[in-house]
Write a structure and sequence with these properties.
about 425 residues; alpha+beta; Double Stranded RNA Binding Domain; DNA polymerase, domain 1; hpI Integrase, Chain A; 3 domains; 3-stranded antiparallel sheet; 18 helices; 7 strands; about 10% strand; elongated
């Protein structure tokens, strides 16, 4: 029978004498040596006496302590350890709370919209992109075409209907842009799936998805070439630019003689050139295809390099005005504009070279393509191609230099 009252409990607590006061049925008020008060339930299980703490006073009142003691007593009478049962219940509650927390966290992460996932993808891959402009191109195309349709949508909600809404208006008008955009959306959604933000097939994938809903790009694609000079006009043009000592014109001349890309020429360093061997080795890190490319240097190209000044503290063949920097990537284009040649681009001279090689010479196609460092699209052909056709390309570039300058290439004649 209960013996304590609220008043007696308060009196015992105020007295603060260490010890146990029995309320009956195994419930005790315990005063510790420090004067703190708490509730204890004493019970026997399998012949062994056990103490079970029920909480501190006054957080747990007398009435609440009696309720807790009654619950524990019922369990002990049927052979259930109330201490173990409480621990199991606390663990169950802990697991439930953790599961709920993780579910809420997962839901919050899964609700990350496409724009946020795209930003994460760009940030993660930026370091691996060789051209800084690549990041800007990614951001611009997604912002211009994709974000207004799916930017606000959680990644897992992006479906094929959204992708079609983005691509359909530009698929025929801007096929190159549309294809790049499709690929970028596909990559972002693949990354989202890898991070557990979406399931199922990728709606931006071409094979098995969009190829059933959009016409193949080859059937609608009209190639937009870089404005290029006809090969017949080139020799006279080379005479004109050869009259200038400006570095931008020399860079342009070297670009034409090597049929290389603007970025490859402007990034060329003295350490990449071996005039004795007549070779310029462009490292993989600066090549579009990500593979080292050896460029045979004709006599005209070697002579041009030999005429270039060496600037202390600047290792570039074509140093810019800023310390340790090459010419601006606009330098050659601006040189063309000063000549009144807005109708052509620097990159277009690669087309001039290719047209000349096809229409005037008997050099094999694969040699011409290798000279332009084009990737072999045929997987079987690529697998069997081991060498870089350097000697054959030497002859090709010698013929090109002889045609462009009107002077027989000395390396060829030797």
């Amino acid at each position: 029978m209960a013996s304590l009252t609220t008043k007696t409990v308060e009196k015992i607590v105020r007295t603060a004498l260490p010890g146990l006061t029995n309320d009956g049925d195994g419930l005790y008020l315990k005063i510790s040596r420090t004067g703190s008060a708490s509730w204890i339930f004493r019970f026997k299980l399998a012949g062994r006496s056990r103490d079970m703490g029920l909480g501190r006073h006054p957080e747990v009142s007398l009435a609440a302590a009696r309720d807790k003691a009654a619950d524990a007593r019922r369990l002990s009478r049927v052979g259930i350890d109330p201490l173990q049962n409480r621990d199991e219940e606390l663990e169950r509650q802990r697991v439930e709370k953790e599961t709920e927390r993780l579910a809420l966290e997962a839901a919050k992460v899964k609700a990350k919209n496409f724009k946020e996932v795209a930003a994460d993808y760009i940030s993660t891959h930026r370091a691996g992109w060789k051209n800084p402009k690549h990041t800007q191109q990614w951001e611009n195309t997604l912002a211009t075409y994709a974000f207004k349709v799916i930017g606000h949508l959680p990644a897992h909600q992006v479906g094929i209907e959204h992708v079609l809404k983005i691509l359909t208006p530009i698929w025929a008008k801007k096929p190159e842009t549309a294809n790049r955009l499709r690929n970028r959306i596909e990559l972002v959604l693949d990354a989202a799936k890898a991070r557990g933000l979406r399931d199922g097939e990728n709606p931006a994938r071409w094979r098995g998805h969009l190829d059933k809903l959009l016409p193949p790009r080859k059937k609608i694609h009209t190639v937009r070439h870089h404005p290029a000079m006809s090969w017949a006009e080139l020799p006279d043009f080379m005479v004109k630019i050869g009259e200038s000592e400006e570095l931008s014109f020399k860079a342009l001349r070297f670009t034409i003689l090597t049929a290389c890309r603007t970025s490859e020429v402007l990034g060329a360093t003295w350490g990449e050139v071996d005039l004795g061997a007549g070779v310029w080795t462009i490292p993989a890190s600066r090549m579009k295809a990500g593979r080292e490319h050896r460029v045979p240097l004709s006599g005209a190209a070697s002579e041009l390099i030999a005429s270039l000044p060496r600037i202390v503290g600047n290792n570039y063949l074509f140093p810019g005005a800023r310390r340790k920097r090459p010419l601006s990537n606009m330098a050659m284009l601006m040189a063309l504009r000063r000549m009144g040649r807005d109708d052509i681009t620097t990159h277009g001279f690669r087309s001039t070279f290719r047209d000349w090689a096809s229409e005037v010479t008997h050099h094999p196609r694969e040699v011409c393509e290798q000279a332009l460092a084009h990737v072999v699209e045929n997987a079987v052909e690529a697998a069997y191609r081991r060498g870089d056709l350097f000697e054959k390309r030497q002859r090709l570039m010698g013929d090109w230099a002889a045609y462009a300058t009107g002077v027989e290439d000395q390396k060829q004649s030797a």
